[in-house]
Amino acid sequence: MKVFSTLYDKALVWAQHRRAPAILSGISFAESVIFPIPVDVMLAPMAIAQPNRAMYFAMLTTIFSVLGGIAGYFLGLLAFEPIVLPVIEYFGHTDTLLQAQRWFAEWGFWVIFLAGFSPIPYKVFTVTAGVMTIAFLPFVIASVIGRGMRFFLVAWLMKWGGPIMEKHLRQHMDTIGWAVVVLAIVAYFILR
């Protein structure tokens, strides 16, 4: 099934739209709070389509992702019981929240850094940081470092690889996409 390569082709077209930076910023913000799709799926095609602006796109993505993380932090801090907890319970993610809280208790700063850099859902940890009233400044610093490293790496790889990277990425997009889906399902069952 060629679902991901079709989406990738559309993302390449969208990446050249004049409002693409604004859309990228909005998706970066939303992805850190609620949006389920990683922003990399828009950042990578934009960096390939406009390599001279790749680092600018990475900077936008980092800034708005961290701002979204801050919104998630305050959502957890100020609206946990009336908003966040019912949603978590509705979707059956209470165990995931408890696991995230255990990781915070054990690892602190490094949990945010790893969640920011890795494909682990950053949004779960932004809200949990607020719930647990993790120190705000270390939270922001870890978010900037983790998210920045991830997005600048993606942009740099796309810029560096250029047309060759685009060809290989396009060729293997469905395999990569389905592998990410499988990993997400496995991670779900492990964290559950």
From TrEMBL:
Keyword Transmembrane: yes
A GO cellular component entry from the record: plasma membrane
Record keywords: Membrane, Transmembrane, Transmembrane helix
InterPro entries: DedA_domain, VTT_dom
Transmembrane regions listed in the UniProt entry: 55-80, 100-117, 124-146, 175-191
Domain (VTT) ranges: 38-157
Keyword rRNA-binding belongs to the record: no
Name of this chain's protein: VTT domain-containing protein
